[in-house]
Amino acid sequence: MRPLPLPAALTVVVLGGMASAAQGVINAELGERTGDPVLGAVVNNVGGCLIVLVGLAVLPAMRTGLAGLRRARLPWWSYLGGVGGAVIVLTAPVVVPVLGVAVYTIAQVAGGSLGGLGVDRVGLAAVGRLPFTVPRVAGAALGIGAVALAQLGRPVGDLAVGMVLLSVVGGLAVSLQSALNGRVAAGIGPAAGLAVNFVVSSSVIGAVAVLSGAFGDHAAWPTQWWLYVGGVFGVGIVLALLVGVRAAGVLRTGLALVAGQLSGALLLDAALPGGPGVRLPVLAGAVLTLLAVLVAGVRWRVPVRVAAEPEREPDGRLVG
Question: pTM for the whole thing?
Answer without folding.
Answer: 0.85
